[in-house]
Every structure is written in C-alpha cells, then in structure tokens.
Design goal:
The chain is mostly beta strands. It contains three helices and 18 strands. Helix 1 packs across helix 3.
C-alpha cells in the first residue's frame, strides 16, 4: 500500500518523454505514479529498477513521486518557512513542487511570510499533506540529557504565565520559565546554548539561556562599563531603577544588576548616587 507523505520502494514500470511511471501497487496500470524527469535529482533509473521515492499529491490532486528529498515527512516536526498567506490558509515550503497548506484552524499563533516556525506534518481527510503549529502533543520526553548539558532549541509557544515552550532536537519538549529569560522571545526563535537546569517528573527539560552566575555577572559588569563609556561616564540607572527598564536595557534581572554594580563599586570603577551611576 502506498504511504503518502513518506518514502516508498516502488518498481519502475515504463518510461516516457517526460518521466517514468512507477507501480502504484493496485494491479491497475491507470494507478501508476509519475516520477517526472525534473524530480529525479541527480539520479538515473531504468525500467525494472526498484527505487525509493517520496510520494505526495500534486497541484491536480494526483499521486506524484520525487527522488529529491523533501524537508520533512508525515509525522515529523520540522522548522519550515512560510511562503504565502491566502484566503484559505497559510502555505509553507516543504521542498516539494507543491507548497503545504496550514489551515487557519491549525494556526495557533500569527504566522508571517518569509519567517520560519515549527510545524507538525500530517495527512488531512483527503490524504493531502498538511501542517499545524500545534506540535505539543507530538513531542516526547524520552532522552539521555542530564542537568548541566547544553542544547539548542526553537520556541513554539508560551504558557499562560509567559514561560516559553521550546522544542529540542525536533522532537523533545522543553520549557524556559518566565523568570529565566530577560529579552523578548517569539515563536520561531532559535535559541543556541541553552543549559538543562531541571528534568521534570514527566521527562520535560527545564532550560535556561542564562550563563552561570559568575559568568553572567562578569558579562553584566562589562555591559555596564561599556554603557557608561558610551554615555560620557554617566547613566541614569542605579540600584533603585525600575526592574523593567533594567531588563530592557541590560537584559538582566534587577537582582543581578545590583550585584554587578556592587562588584564594580568595590573595584572602585564606578560610583552612584540618587541621580544615577558614574564612571570613576
């Protein structure tokens, strides 16, 4: 039986000027599947060969084959680009001759043209390849990671408390708690160098983009000095400043900002008063 949206091993039945017809496995030659010449890639085939091809439905809703590897298959979670927004839904590039539809009901957040997001690939009721941004139920929590390991991830949504949901290795569920990040995140953001700081009972990865406290403070101290040097040795921020402003300007919690200021004052590099902070 043919698996649409997946790889199939099929026999080449006959050749034409525009391509090859493959056995459709129904016993009826009318159901043979076209492998167009332009979808051979760098491969050469002969009548009688058994070849591995990816099967999809073309723009006329007919089964078609390709030997050019697509970017994903049915059952995958993949990071794909939005190529169009239309009245019937959003279309994404999966590396096929036909773009893949994301129905409006399968869009859980706004999708913008030319941006990339995570999608789960599935077959709709008409056996056409389709996609959804609702990937959470399709991620698993079985892994070999330990606390302290470094991973990369992609944001795919947010919890009601603003904690970021992150997909690791295209199939693992992770979360960055809202108090672990200090810059604006959005769906589709690629986050490098995340540290595993917790493994929840269900196996979900607890992650942070933050460095160790020592590394973070050293980096923050440099940021403060650089800011002062670029502002004629003065800034209006001190240990009484609004936490939100500190978060926006220095990508830091107020707690760490105060610690860094304290370290710099002990080093006699800065001083502060009620008006702000000064470079010595």
């Amino acid at each position: 039986m043919i698996e649409i949206g997946n790889y199939n091993k099929l026999t080449v039945k006959r050749k034409t000027d525009f391509g090859y017809f493959l056995d459709g496995l129904t016993g009826n030659s009318k159901d043979d599947i076209l492998l167009h010449n332009r979808l051979l890639g760098e491969n050469t085939v002969e009548v009688g060969d058994e070849i591995e091809v990816f099967i999809f439905k073309d723009s006329e809703d007919r089964l078609a084959a390709t030997m050019i590897k697509p970017l994903a298959k049915v059952g995958d979670v993949a990071y794909l680009k939005v190529v169009d927004n239309t009245d019937i839904g959003i279309f994404i590039d999966m590396g096929l001759t036909k773009d893949i539809l994301v129905p409006f009901k399968e869009k859980t957040y706004p999708l913008f043209r030319d941006e990339k997001y995570l999608f789960y690939i599935y077959l709709d009721k008409s056996s056409r390849i389709a996609a959804t941004t609702d990937i959470d139920l399709h991620l698993n929590t079985e892994h070999q990671y330990n606390i302290g390991d470094i991973v990369d991830g992609i944001v795919y949504g947010f919890q009601t408390n603003h904690s970021a949901m992150v997909c690791v290795d295209s199939n693992l569920a992770g979360v960055i708690l809202h108090n672990e990040y200090f810059r604006e995140l959005k769906e589709g953001d690629v986050l490098k160098g995340l540290k595993v700081i917790k493994i929840y009972e269900d196996g979900k990865l607890g992650l942070t983009p933050r460095a160790s406290r020592e590394e973070e403070l050293n980096e923050l101290e440099s940021k403060i000095i650089s800011y002062l040097e670029g502002s004629d040795g003065y800034m209006r921020f001190n240990d009484k400043s609004d936490p939100k402003e500190i978060e926006i300007v220095f990508n830091s919690s107020k707690k760490n900002f105060k610690r860094a200021l304290g370290v710099l004052m002990k080093k006699e590099l800065v001083k502060q008063d009620t008006d702000g902070t000064y470079l010595i």
